[in-house]
Please model this.
Amino acid sequence: MTAEAHAERPSVLRRFTRNRRGLVGGVVVAVMVTAGALAPVLAPQSYSAQSLLNRLKPPSAAHWLGTDGFGRDVLSRVIWGSRVSLEIGLVATALALVVGTVVGSVAGYFGGATDTAIMRAADVFLSVPALFLILIVVALFGASLANTALVIALVTWAPVGRIVRSECLSLRNRDFVHAAAALGAGHARILGRHLLVNALPIVIVQASLLLGQTILIESGLSYLGLGAQPPLPSWGNMVVEGRQFLALAWWIATFPGLAIFVTVLGFNLFGDGLRDASDPTLRGRTP
Amino acid sequence: MIHPILIALLATSIGLTPTASLAAGKDFVIGLSGDATSLNPVVATDGQSYIAEWPLFDSLVELDQGLNVKPLLAESWEVSRDGLTYTFKLKRGVKWHDGKPFTARDVAFTFYSVLDPKVTTPHRAYFDALAGFPELTAKENPKRPEELAVRPIEVIDDHTVRFRLRYPSGSFLAVLVNPRAGIVPEHILKGTDLNTAEFNRRPIGTGPFRLVEWRRGERLVMEANAEYHGGRPALDHLIFRIIPDSVVLLQELRAGGVDFIENPPLTEVARLKQTPNLKVLAADNTSYTYFGWRQDLAPFTDVRVRRALYHAIDVPSIVREVLQGYAAVATGQFPPSSWAFDPSVKPYAYDPARAKALLAEAGFKPGPDGVLAKDGKRFSFSVRHDQANQSVKDTAVIIQEYLKRVGVEVQLEPLDWPTFVKKLFASEFEGIVVGWTNHHDPDPFAYTIWHSSQWKGRNFAHYKNARVDEALEAARRTGVTAERKKHYAELSKLLMEDAPYVFLYFPQQVYVTRAGYEGFVPIPTFAGIYQSLKSVRWTGR
Amino acid sequence: MEPGLRTYILKRVGFAVLMLVGVSIILFTIMRLAPGGPEAVLIGGEFSQEAAAQIRQRLGLDRPIALQYLGWAGAALRGDLGRSFKTGDPVAALIRDRLGPTIQLTFGALALALAVAVPLGVLAAVRRGTIWDTLGSAVALFGVSFPSFWLGIMLILLFSEVFHLLPPSGLSEYGREGDLTARVRHAILPTLTLGLIQMASFMRFTRSSLLEVLRQDYVRTARAKGLGGGQVVWRHALRNALIPVVTVVGLSLPTLVGGAVLTETVFAWPGIGRLAVGAVFERDYPVIMGVNLMVAAVVITANLITDLAYCVIDPRISYQ
Model:
């Protein structure tokens, strides 16, 4: 780690902790991730255990958030749902970030024809509406968690690539990069040790915003019947299943809906907070 | 002083009351979840198209509520003593929607088109009994009707047409009914490619309604045919609105934008029944939903295993809770509305202990993870089903849980319909949850599902039982209903003994309509209620 | 026009065409690599392997994939997008019929989003750090944190079931197509649902763009010269701040059209989005290709225009 990157860290952290909204977002995100990670321990019951005699029961001591149309415990399913929803989000985001960062930094660092070629390729992916492409791939290849995550990554790497590229473009003419080059550092080393480390904050911001988006995309796919498949609960398919019971059993759709809302909001606040902290002038620059 | 914006708001709010149909009581709005794809009864393959075609096209004969055949375009008919010739006298003075007269040539044209291998139609196999069927439908060098020594369909005069069969068939009249056998006009379709004809979008029929407008994905509008041979229908317009989301469809029904819907979410039905201006109608159906598997794969080859699966699933509770009672527990191939139904056949009772015992008997022992295993192989298999069908989806999820309780592991694999159907007919599956929509005559489906010669067709589960084959063949060879009934009863008993499927339930078709519309006749066949649109009328509240 | 600019424009147009080709190749490859095919849908209940082979032959699906692509692309160049496998309709006609409702919906949503987001963004920037700023971001964030189909259904419940104010779905009523009030009433809920998706990003962008401009020297100079706050914002700053907002509007097109897939399904809106959903489920290849190509062409053209407009408006941008 370079001295420069080191020097920047405490101030980012301090600025972030002073940002109340960002902090709230961070806490929400942390809670949801923990719930997902510890789902087997936290969930009072299995997410798939049914009891047809106990269907559509309102919240009670035995079932804090009630039961669904199969008599399954809604609380357990919401907890497990955080795992499924976040799993898709994390895999997709990680893939998109890796591809986007590598491609974007290479384009930004080398510039010229490499840059043009790569960025035009990214434009191709940006010009088909994301949901159209996702729909085609998931509908034609089958609705599995892996497919969903892959295809979300396929359509989200391009914006990440663009942002990383512009960050690298502005960084590559900074003194410390020139100095490293003068000291005989190779391309890979400069890219990895200097440019990427400095572009990291903005990449993390992107990750946070992307995670929120993927949860929404998954719920949209669930609505079209292409999201996580039963009995696996995702917040998206729980809302979709529950919406037909709205008049009879409001709790089935409301709680996972609330979970989506709070989590997506959390990721957005967290991302915004991070962005403000890493560079106050950047706030709101990326869609 | 009142603010001008407020006035504007007030003014618009007057227009903001929910609007009734154009002419209350004279227009009838039917909500459909998807659009029709073709309005040509010869080539259409999907339920929505069948529904939309029904008011547009008449068939030679139609069914009544007791599934008896009644005249429609045919005034009367005679069957020869050997059961091989059917001669129909057609109604006189019937006109196509374009004013041209309807004649026997249209009938011949329609069914020769169904037999023509160049035409992609789902109905061809129903006409297997027609003379010359193998020659006309051959894959290589099919013959044309003129080249045959005996014409299967002969135009005697403008109002008489004769069908010749190669074997007596008790089900022949039954295949001539809507929605699969609407008559199409020769004068428009002759010489065109029926698969892609413009006619499929602008159909001309002889039915009680004619098509006025078809806005893809939005609505179909039909108006009463004043010249209809059965008398002008009471309604002025039929409007089919396409609304894909079932919850929104229900909202439209409540808000007054739609007067009739099919298959409401069953959990909502109790509430709908209490809504004062709505009425719930239920009709028997010819279909059944089942849980099946590949008969030739171990361990399903062991009858004890098959019976254990039957004992493991509490079907009555599925019927009660998920289908809210709008279904009957299935006991085999034939629904209670069919004359082939045998009430003496009883399904295996829900008895998980018995299921476990049978599985133990078959050599299965609980493994370390709670899943049964035999010779080191876990009893775990995949169950494929249609991802779009809500009740099938729910049923599959419930079955998975019931089987888990007896130590059998199931992975659900929901597939989109095209892929699913392809895998079915290619026998690429272990378990399946799916339904069969029977013809109201027992033969067309029973034979193709269970006869061992049909492994490349509907018997994709690869069932084989010599005694079942015998019963099916015997039933096919006779035209006498009492005889057929006996053979089908034998079939039902053999099937229950063998437990090749878990026959789950016979679902009813449920409809909700606005109170005040009367005259629906729920004929117990697929979408049968739509036949009565010509008699539906507004009676006021 | 200076030569640099002309070269840039030519290059940019060339890229646009190349991108369109790229899109079509990607789509074609994805579709044909997928398992399953349209035969099952077309044959329905009487499916058999023989019939399937026959259908594949009729549709030309038995030819090598490269040949299929070239055949399709050649026809597309002549303006012929083929016929729907499922219904036999010319794809171009299907798209034409569905284009109107989608344009109405997306542009309505765009206008609504801008009408709400720009003033909110300005307010948030001018009153930075106050309750207005917080409120503005809250509204914006609220809108993007809901699944849009859920929002749509809730709006229907509220405005149709509870208050009986607006019709739940559809474009208009039979026999009342000419009635503008009826059409507007049908359009309110879907437009609102789709518009909310875009509001947040417009609002944030207006805010940050305006903040940036406000920090710049000429604004400070104007302030130093004693011009009032409102005047500075409206006369000087906002005009410059809105230039980048125009770009974002161009870039938001794919999101809007993508969002229309869900909105149109919820509200039974007979547009392009639902055409695409139906075609995908039925493996209606010509329709999938046609719709996506058309949408990509619109997006690429819109981006081209914004790019070109941008470099004409703002001379500071260098074009290489």
Remarks:
- Chain C has a mean pLDDT of 83.
- Chain C is about 75% helix and 0% strand.
- The first helix of chain C runs from residue 3 to 33.
